[in-house]
Write a structure and sequence with these properties.
- With 527 residues, the protein is α/β, with parallel strands linked by helices.
- The chain has two domains: 212 residues; 174 residues, Nitrilase/N-carbamoyl-D-aminoacid amidohydrolase, CATH 3.60.110.10.
- Helix content is 44%, strand content 15%.
- It has 15 helices and 13 strands.
- The strands form two sheets. Strands 1, 2, 3, 4, 5, 6 and 13 form a seven-stranded mixed β-sheet that branches. The chain has a six-stranded mixed β-sheet with strand order 7-8-9-10-11-12, with helices on one face.
- A hairpin with a 5-residue loop joins strand 3 and strand 4.
- Helix 1 packs antiparallel against helix 2, helix 3 packs across helix 5 and helix 7 crosses helix 13.
- The longest helix has 33 residues.
- The chain is globular and about 75 Å long.
Length: 527
């Protein structure tokens, strides 16, 4: 068990190294193979331990950036997230008793990953293995199979490696066939990359206004944050007037461009209006808006048109539990828990948005996402499936500006563009802002902690990728396959137990007792 624990520990560390800042992508299947081997041959009642060790190392190290919020927050999530890996270890050990077990272990990995990314309170998608494939051949599978499909391919590759180490190498013909099949599936999309049909182009101006002070606190001087967006937007207008820059179809401001409700604050409303009139095109403003229910707030992207003002809005679909709202506030044990640490700073609960259709900005259908929305599949499958031609992401990563969270989120953002087959513009308060093509390639990127803008002309796409059409079905299928595999083991073991039980109750007579007394053919020497 000590060796298994060390293997699980090393594998968890290796998987972390596949993400930013190290970004050694090729480690992903080897790390998963190590986990599978660490539980191979163990009963389920003991296999949970290597799984827990793997998850503890992986999630604690990967999400170290949570210390920017507080050490208590980091410790809390580092204790909760690994709990998903304990039953994962038991399930991985269980399905390895079946034939073709690499398939079932891959399905189990994806099934548990899909639960962890959606439950509880919306889940925590950080750490999906498919979020670590930027600039690899696996990334080209995203438009075809989506993030769940790519996770399955990575898990299957890792399981196949474990199978080879566990004895599959003794069957060279079969091992070679498995290797060729995996290579064809992996390299196929590279040789035939998804190329969506373009229906036009749009010019987007992305504003990064920076944050006063050390850059980590948007609320410290929120009025200056809004003023910075106005200043940069008026510079864009000046560049357009001087012929130094093309006129944008719209301007993108980041999340928390204003931390006060522009509908309730005349000064902030005047600042936004002045910027929109100066540039002469719509601005997608990131704003905190008072909710309809008392004690609630909405995190919105608001289309602000010159001479008209606010029109369409998108509200953040996935507010962060214990970060932007407190579940079960004022109920049961939560009455005391909500007074713990930085939870006391959450004076109002952020309500989730329900919009499923794209915004219309200057004649362009735009799918918007706000901050951690970028990590959730449903935000994009709904809006892109409903006809979005372009994606925008509004984010405020100022709190994490000195951590690697901003790099991890930017890589997820790049992969979102590729999986959706859409150009994507991301505006951050002070980094990382950029413009990404439908192929996931970065076309422009702003340096962090700068007051600047990016103006890029990008293609518009209306064709829906297979990944978007599949939606949540790959995750549902993985759950079905995983449950059937576990049920098959349980039924087989149940059958063995039943037969053994009958054998214990009614032991068969001894063969010698069944031989009649007296001479036998054998005793008489006859055959």
């Amino acid at each position: 068990m000590l060796l298994r624990t060390l293997l699980a520990l090393g594998s968890g560390a290796a998987l972390t190294l596949a993400f930013e800042p190290a970004a050694i992508r090729l480690l992903i299947p080897f790390a998963l193979a190590g986990l599978v081997l660490s539980v191979r041959g163990l009963p389920a009642r003991r296999a949970w331990w290597p799984g827990l060790v793997f998850g503890l190392v992986f999630m604690t190290w990967l999400q170290h950036w949570m210390t920017a919020i507080g050490t208590d927050a980091w410790i809390g999530i580092s204790l909760v997230e690994p709990l998903f890996f304990a039953p994962l270890g038991s399930a991985l050990a269980t399905v390895q008793r079946l034939r073709w077990w690499p398939l079932w272990t891959a399905a189990v990995w994806v099934a548990v990953e899909s639960v962890r990314t959606t439950w509880p309170f919306g889940g925590m998608p950080w750490g999906r293995v498919s979020y670590g494939v930027a600039d690899t051949w696996w990334a080209q599978m995203l438009p075809y199979a989506g993030f769940t499909g790519v996770s399955f391919l990575l898990a299957l590759t890792g399981s196949a490696l474990a199978w080879a180490v566990a004895g599959g190498w003794r069957r060279p013909g079969l091992a070679a066939g498995v290797a060729v099949a995996l290579a064809l599936v992996t390299v196929g999309p590279v040789l035939a990359p998804y190329q969506p049909e373009r229906v036009g182009s749009a010019t987007v101006a992305v504003v990064q206004g920076d944050v006063p002070g050390d850059g980590t606190n948007v609320l410290l001087d929120h009025r200056q944050v809004t003023e910075n967006q106005r200043i940069v937007t008026e510079r864009i207008a000046a560049d357009v007037a001087a012929g130094r820059s093309p006129e944008p179809d719209f301007v993108l401001w980041p999340e928390n461009s204003t931390a006060v409700d522009p509908f309730a604050n005349a000064d902030i409303r005047a600042t936004i209006t002045a910027a929109s009139q100066a540039v002469g095109v719509p601005i997608l403003v990131g704003a905190l808006v008072d909710g309809a229910e008392p004690g609630t707030v909405l995190n919105q992207g608001i289309v602000w048109r010159p001479e008209v003002g606010a029109t369409e809005r998108y509200s953040k679909s996935h507010p962060v539990p214990f970060g932007e709202y407190i579940p079960w506030r004022g109920k049961g044990p939560m009455k005391e828990f909500e007074n713990f640490g930085r939870l006391t700073e959450i004076s109002r609960d952020m309500a989730p948005g329900r919009r499923e259709t794209p915004l219309r900005i200057g004649g362009i259908r735009v799918a918007d996402a706000i901050c951690f929305d970028v990590a959730y599949d449903d935000v994009f499958t709904r809006q892109v499936g409903a006809g979005a031609e372009l994606i925008t992401v509004q984010t405020s990563n100022a709190m994490f500006i000195r951590t690697h969270q901003i790099d991890q989120q930017f890589e997820i953002t790049r992969l979102r563009a590729l999986a959706s087959g859409r150009s994507l513009a991301v505006a951050s308060t002070n980094g990382i802002s950029g413009v990404i093509g439908p192929d996931g390639e970065v076309r422009a990127q702003a340096p962090i902690r700068t007051r600047t803008s990016l103006t890029e002309t990008v293609p518009l796409v209306s064709q829906v990728t297979p990944a978007v059409r599949l939606g949540a079905w790959p995750a549902r299928l993985s759950w079905l396959v995983a449950l059937l595999a576990l049920a098959a083991v349980a039924l087989r073991r149940g059958g063995v137990t039943y037969r053994r039980g009958r054998a214990d109750a009614e032991p068969p007579a001894s063969p010698r007792a069944l031989v009649p007394a007296g001479p036998t053919p054998e005793r008489e020497g006859r055959p």
